[in-house]
Amino acid sequence: MSTIDYDAWAKKYDNTRGASPSVLRPLREALGAPNGRSLLDIGGGTGNYSVALGEAGFRVDHCDPSAGMVQRAASKMGPTVVADGQHLPFRESAFDCAVAIKVMNHVPDWPRFFAEAHRILRGGPLVLVHATRETMRANWITHYIPTIGKQERFRPEAETAQQLRAAGFTRVEVGHMHYDDIVDGSAQALKSFPEAFLDDSRIMNTSLLSREPPETLTPSLAAIRRDHASGRLQEIIARYEPLVRKYGDGSVFAAWP
Q: Does the N-terminal or the C-terminal CB of the chain have fewer CB atoms within 10 Å?
């Protein structure tokens, strides 16, 4: 599995990435009424969700460990901070609530991340959206690239909830989201629109697929495209539908201190 140069990725990230209504709906529901509450977008990338949540009425601060991502975000929303979620440069109880969208699968030290999030929050919640072991089981892409679903970075939902409680969050709720749009261009969104797998530029603008070595990805994409042309892909996708109904396209965690 290759690593990603996020500073370089920032230059093309927004070619296919935006704030998905499918993600914003459960985010807004979990966060509650904006009412001018302060919110930290941890690992906020190029700021797409920061901008959307600001437009919804939150007072949003943004941080990301990539200087390139932060530069792109700053062009949309003003000053932001280069900071890793495991070492947040904010005082205790600085924010009413926080979000981390598609971040946790890239974080090495979960206990440190959750401890930092707990430290900077007042009432909460902290809302996480990410792929879990369960949602990866529901992803038909794993039929073609089985090694993806076995990656340790995709952890069971129960482990995420347990680690949140261990960090001091006293109330943890778990739900699921389903994509009905392709706005954020993630692999989880693309799987609901299989015709997108005919477009190399869109596919390679995802962290899930761009991490795969060419010797794995090239034949896998060729197989997907052959099955798309023959109609077999729809049969494969149908096999995963019961799991999609159960686990969705992403897990949503809301945790209160």
A: N
Q: Are 160 and 132 in contact (CB under 8 A)?
A: yes
State the burial class of residue 21 (Cβ atoms within 10 Å of its Cβ: 0-12, 13-18, 19+): middle
Q: How many CB atoms lie within 10 A of CB 76?
A: 15
The pTM of this model reads 0.96
**Whole-angstrom Cα distance, residue 147 to residue 169?**
33
The confidence score (pLDDT) of residue 3 equals 78
How is the chain split into domains, by residue range? 6-256
Residues of the chain with pLDDT under 50: none
- For position 150, what pLDDT does the model report? 87
> Cα separation of 242 and 50, whole Å?
33
Topology, domain 6-256: Rossmann fold (3.40.50)
Cβ atoms of 249 and 179 within 8 Å: the answer is yes
β-pair partners for 38: 59
Q: Give the tens place of pLDDT for each residue, 1-43.
A: 567 899 999 999 999 999 999 999 999 999 999 999 999 999 9
